[in-house]
Design goal:
The chain is of the alpha+beta class. The chain contains eight helices and five strands, in the order H-H-H-H-H-H-H-H-E-E-E-E-E. It holds the Pfam family DnaJ.
Length: 213
């Protein structure tokens, strides 16, 4: 008579065979579910089952055309080179055919090895990230000539056709010494630059809108 423990072990082996059958038919979710069932039925199978599931996950990511980061099990596309290599060592111990008896092991190891080859090489990784859209585009750089044409802060000369406002009245007694004001204006606009000692204040008015810079 078969006792409960032996029955669970036998059922666990059947679950493993079912999982391997599913993976050969590319039924990844069913394969993982069967392997988890094997772990539940026989805890002694946990280590082996985890390795099998790792191989299944690699194949699922590769067949779904997911990124090399997903294939390798790396969540952060900004992971360092050291983190990439550490994750490869972890995965290779789980999916290498010498360590993993699954029918998926050989193909899974090829996929993680290919991911490492690309992601551990700075030039290849940069090209891959750019292709996948992971690299943020830098803002266009201004040429030296463009930078040279930019006027210094608070240095503004009105274009031709703009007229200088009438001279401002002398500063009242309430104004502080060392204050100077220049105003330029045209039809519907004005531009005033006020310097108080080392500070500069600019007021721009266009129509009914006034902005203090």
């Amino acid at each position: 008579m078969v006792n409960a423990a032996d029955f669970h072990k036998l059922a666990g082996k059947h679950a493993i065979r079912a999982a391997e059958d599913y993976i050969q038919r590319s039924l990844f979710q069913q394969a993982v579910q069967s392997m988890n069932a094997a772990k539940d039925l026989d805890p002694d199978l946990s280590c082996m089952a985890d390795n099998y599931i790792a191989a299944y996950s690699v194949l699922e990511a590769a067949h779904a055309k997911q990124s090399l980061y997903k294939v390798l099990g790396v969540d952060d596309v900004k992971a360092s080179g050291a983190e990439i290599k550490k994750q490869f060592r972890k995965m290779s111990l789980m999916v290498h055919p010498d360590k993993n008896g699954s029918v998926a092991a050989e193909e899974a190891f090829k996929h993680v090895s290919n991911a490492l080859e690309v992601l551990s090489d700075d030039k290849k990784r940069l090209a891959y990230d750019d292709k996948m859209g992971y690299q943020k585009k830098s803002p266009p750089q201004q040429s030296q000539q463009q930078r040279a044409r930019r006027p210094p802060p608070h240095c503004w000369n009105p274009p031709s056709g703009f007229k200088k406002a009438k001279p401002q009245p002398a500063a009242s007694s309430s104004q502080q010494a060392g204050t100077s004001t220049k105003t330029f204006s045209g039809e519907g606009w004005s531009f005033r630059v006020t310097r108080v000692e080392k500070n500069t204040f600019i007021k721009v008015r266009v129509g009914d809108t006034t902005v203090l810079l």
